[in-house]
């Protein structure tokens, strides 16, 4: 498979999924597949669908990672964590999954040893006097302890953490598992073999892998999720492309502000990894999160985007562009519609504008009795030459939703992207005072990749 066929292509050609044999369900015209699936395109016209809110607060709460409807009764006030991109999912975990409520996420503690290690670490970070662990405390989500919750007649322990996407309207999330070696010193032989087989090229060449991500694709106005089976196909080049896509930099120029926010966190993580000698972090992740809604405010004009190429070209070269109608309706601008007066199924027949019809240089007189203008006005309302009418309305709705959101929020944080350390199920106290090379190498490579992206913005 060619390098470019693997990564961003599924987004443009969702039918690629079909050949992979995963479950697929079509919902509202979108394509979805199993939670291991290569890609899950959630929905076009997100603002309309989600009313401009974080999907954690909309009706996806009875869906699993793959978007399948689940018939599970949720504990009071809780929903499934719809922004979950990797990790154990509800079907693999006896019907118990990651939940969210208010600004918190709830991670079920199902494996005793993993649970004990993870809790121990969070508790240790609360009380530590070790300098590098104090540093680490600021690099993890806020810890709210362990809560027992009745789920399907069973009392289950949940780790309660700050939801890192809580302030985001359109959360983009990428789980990056750090380390060439993702098995711990107590792993069984079969676990070692299983881990070594997975994400092989990516781990070997980059020292990290990407088990899952979701991105609000701004150019296409839709949410796309990539599952772990997609992650397992990546190599160092395709991983880089996917990270670019995650940053919406496949269709736009890199946004320096976004890169700087993420790099600021990654540099802190790197500083920690370079200095800490107390822990060995196996199979632990860095969660990158940002708000695509805020990114939109900073995007430079789109460069040629493969996904958009067709629509951009048709819009700019088409004689039927709605712009000509809009100008006509102003009645006082330069009017160059070239409308011949004849309509076909495909839209109006155009010809070179006649000076006789439109006097461009005359006084700015708006003649509302002009029957031609009237009929064009009517036409514009009733006839969508390129189905852009719906799009226009959608865009208007979207801007209103955004305005409303801005008006409703008390404040607009300057920080809309961050990177935090998560998943400490396989973190152990170090048995020597060496640096955790396995962990540091992955972090170094990730930082380097982001630094290279930043350098591209300076070219
Ligand atoms: N604090 C958080 N805020 C928001 N999302 C989170 C948070 N913690 C975890 N998640 C989401 O849940 C996913 C799984 O988290 P985590 O890695 O802790 O679970 P896990 O089941 O232990 O994973 P694994 O199977 O890799 O061991 C992450 O990829 C992320 O999407
Ligand atoms: O990336 P994948 O393919 O999802 O692989 C899973 C991943 O390595 C998890 O970290 C691991 O859970 P633990 O951290 O609990 O070991 C899980 O083991 P499991 O299948 O034994 O649960 C693996 O299946």
Automatic annotation (TrEMBL):
<dbReference type="GO" id="GO:0005524">
    <property type="term" value="F:ATP binding"/>
</dbReference>
<dbReference type="GO" id="GO:0008440">
    <property type="term" value="F:inositol-1,4,5-trisphosphate 3-kinase activity"/>
</dbReference>
<dbReference type="InterPro" id="IPR038286">
    <property type="entry name" value="IPK_sf"/>
</dbReference>
<comment type="similarity">
    <text>Belongs to the inositol phosphokinase (IPK) family.</text>
</comment>
<dbReference type="GO" id="GO:0005634">
    <property type="term" value="C:nucleus"/>
</dbReference>
<protein>
    <recommendedName>
        <fullName>Kinase</fullName>
        <ecNumber>2.7.-.-</ecNumber>
    </recommendedName>
</protein>
<keyword id="KW-0067">ATP-binding</keyword>
<dbReference type="GO" id="GO:0005737">
    <property type="term" value="C:cytoplasm"/>
</dbReference>
<keyword id="KW-0547">Nucleotide-binding</keyword>
<dbReference type="InterPro" id="IPR005522">
    <property type="entry name" value="IPK"/>
</dbReference>
<dbReference type="GO" id="GO:0051765">
    <property type="term" value="F:inositol tetrakisphosphate kinase activity"/>
</dbReference>
<dbReference type="Pfam" id="PF03770">
    <property type="entry name" value="IPK"/>
</dbReference>
<keyword id="KW-0418">Kinase</keyword>
<dbReference type="GO" id="GO:0032958">
    <property type="term" value="P:inositol phosphate biosynthetic process"/>
</dbReference>
<keyword id="KW-0808">Transferase</keyword>
């Amino acid at each position: 498979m060619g390098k470019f066929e693997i990564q961003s292509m599924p987004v443009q050609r969702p039918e690629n999924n079909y050949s992979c044999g995963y479950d697929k369900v079509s919902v509202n015209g979108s394509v979805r597949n199993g939670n291991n699936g290569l890609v899950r395109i959630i929905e076009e016209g997100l603002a309309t669908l989600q009313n401009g809110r974080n999907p954690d607060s909309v009706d996806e709460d009875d869906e699993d990672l793959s978007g399948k409807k689940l018939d599970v009764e949720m504990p009071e006030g809780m929903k499934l964590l719809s922004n979950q991109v990797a990790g154990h999912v509800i079907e693999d975990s006896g019907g118990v999954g990651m939940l969210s409520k208010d600004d918190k996420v709830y991670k079920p503690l199902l494996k005793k040893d993993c649970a004990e290690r993870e809790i121990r670490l969070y508790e240790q970070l609360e009380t530590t006097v070790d300098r590098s662990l104090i540093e680490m405390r600021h690099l993890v989500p806020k810890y709210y302890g362990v809560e027992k919750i009745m789920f399907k007649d069973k009392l289950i322990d949940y780790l309660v953490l700050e939801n890192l996407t809580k302030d985001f309207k359109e959360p983009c999330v990428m789980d990056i598992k750090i380390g060439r070696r993702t098995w711990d010193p107590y792993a069984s032989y079969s676990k070692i073999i299983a881990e070594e087989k997975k994400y092989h090229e990516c781990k070997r060449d980059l020292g990290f892998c990407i088990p899952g991500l979701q991105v609000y694709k701004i150019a296409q106005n839709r949410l796309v999720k990539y599952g772990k089976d997609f992650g397992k196909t990546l190599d160092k080049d395709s991983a880089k492309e996917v990270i670019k896509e995650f940053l919406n930099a496949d269709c736009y120029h890199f946004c320096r502000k976004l890169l700087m926010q993420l790099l600021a966190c990654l540099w802190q993580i790197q500083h920690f990894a370079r200095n800490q000698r107390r822990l060995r972090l196996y199979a632990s992740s860095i969660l990158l999160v940002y708000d695509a809604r805020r990114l939109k405010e900073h995007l430079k004009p789109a460069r040629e985007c493969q996904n958009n190429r067709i629509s951009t070209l048709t819009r700019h070269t088409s004689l039927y562009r709605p712009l000509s109608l809009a100008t006509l309706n102003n009645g006082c601008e330069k009017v160059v519609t070239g409308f011949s007066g004849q309509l076909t199924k495909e839209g109006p027949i155009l010809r070179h504008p006649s000076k006789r019809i439109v006097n461009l240089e005359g006084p700015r007189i708006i003649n509302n009795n002009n029957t031609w203008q009237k009929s064009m006005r009517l036409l514009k309302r009733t006839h969508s030459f390129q189905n852009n009418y719906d799009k226009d309305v959608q865009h208007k709705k979207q801007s209103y939703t955004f305005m409303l959101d801005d008006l409703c929020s008390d404040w607009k944080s300057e920080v809309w992207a961050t990177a935090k350390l998560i998943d400490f199920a396989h973190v152990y106290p170090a048995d020597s005072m060496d640096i955790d090379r396995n962990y540091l190498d992955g972090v170094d490579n990730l930082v380097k990749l982001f630094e290279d992206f930043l350098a591209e913005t300076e070219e």
